[in-house]
Design brief:
heterodimer, A: 334 residues, mainly alpha, 76% helix, disordered C terminus, B: 290 residues, ABC transporter involved in vitamin B12 uptake, BtuC, 3% strand, globular
Amino acid sequence: MSEIFSANNRLRFIALAIALVVLVSLPFWVSGIYYINVGSQILFFAVFALGLNILVGYAGLVSLGHAGLFGISAYATAYMLQQGFGHTSAILVALVIGVASMALFAVLSLRSSGIGFIMITLALGQILWGLAYRWISVTDGDNGIPVRGRPAPFGYSLTDPVNFYYASLIVFIVAVAMVFIFVRSPFGAALMGTRDQPRRMNALGYHVWMIRFYACLFSGLLTAVSAILFVYYTNFISPQTLSLTASAEVLLMVISGGPGTLLGPIVGATLVVVIKTVVSGFIERWNFLLGAIFVAIVILVPEGIVPGSIRLWRLITRKRAAAAPTTTTTERTP
Amino acid sequence: MNFWIVLTVNSITFGGLLFLLASGFSLIFGLMRIPNLTHGSLFMLGAYVGGSIVIGLFGFKLNFWLAAVLASLTVAALGALIERFLLRQLPGDQLAQVLVTLGISFMAADFCLMVWGGDPMSVATPEGLGGFARAGGAVFPLYRLAIIAIAVVVAVALWLLLDRTRLGAMIRAGVDDPDMARVVGIRVSQLFTIVFALGAGLAAFAGIIGGPILSVYPGLDQDMLPLALLVVIIGGAGSLLGSFVGSILVGFIYNFGQALLPELAYFVLFLPMLLVLLLRPQGLFGRHVP
């Protein structure tokens, strides 16, 4: 048993090292700024998806209003910069506003869970969208707010796409590490407990509401971070970013990859960004495809791509183990 | 003075439309325990199909009311198909059902854009209702009064259906306790299809008769869906009275908000929802927290 574990661990370590090398060396073997920019997009959308996955995957709370939260932080950054504040203060204010709005969101939507939570977050998200669209004196409505310039931490100007890619990569790695630690911490275990058995957790003396609330805050923080990267990437923010479509896109990243796994949202973000980039070259109608993928994923691979492939992999290796009876068949129960 | 009266009439009219939309939404929610995110799309689809028949886009022209009935029936059939062939594939998995309805709503929105294009379609007010009624010093557009009358008639009919008929009793039983309803021999899965088709038809009907005052445009679905959600959150899921009160309330807040605080109209809607969620999470007339 322990042998399998260490073999698994070694495999995991090797995979991680390869992934890291690929990500760090990407600008060297990928030709063209276009593809490096796609890489940056994948990275910050993956951070967004990781943030939503905290709620969808680990807390069992499906939010359809996350684009609204994402938008608040993005608008806060753009607005502060427009008012003439520096990058540092704009980023800090955006982080604080993002987490504070998530707290408000949580107080309202955690009045219920399950389907009620979906409805309330959807309504809240749409209200934020309406606000961005109509509150013209602040957001300039449909025209949006342009952002001029990107920050230059430690003298590396992020205007250079390669530098921006590395900045996104650093943020991404930190976010993955944070989620990794979070999921393995006692708090993460308690959160998954509230997902699976809220009443038992309550009986055991856990404060279910408070655990969910803190999970929301963590999710809000990751959302705000990715939103700041987004607004610096596009140099522009408009109500489109807060639309229900945007909320659905990030939810699709989580659901397609596999909710409740660390790798799932990353795979999902890659998938959605790549499909969207490729498809937009051929057809105008991304929405139709988005809807179709949604229906197909939910009906065909409800558990997501990552758990689905793991199941397939186990099936194959089990067959091979059965074919060669000399190897000890150590069955790991999931 | 006149301004306030007109605003009040507009609010009640809008509330009536919302009721047609939200009552079906609320029933589906109450019975099947899923927020049907295609509801805004069904509204828009009804408006487009009905409008096209009135204008004669499909090669034949009908009068407004016949077109309304025909389009409602078409969309109701579509609703039944969605329920039978997609939602039925995912029994008991509410999250998956919600996501499927979300996916369909995107496909429907894009479909409408493909067929009817991006320009708004204006639907003429039906014949004989283009005029005004005078009472006291105030002037009321006849068509708006007609919408209010229709909403009241539909509300009474729905109430009779739910409260006085066998089918209504079965639906109420299904809303209160689906498992127990099954045990006593009610075919709840059949009720799902009936209620889904009924809700879809009502939403489409609201879309058509709302056409002359709202006009029909891409994005109408995403404008209406949150309002239906608000009505259900405020009124309580599965309650007809809740839908009625919630619709009128939202109609008033939305119209007054738009007239008095145009920039924050959408945001003002947030306040009653906030109060209801904090003080009475199950909604004003709801029986249980969703």
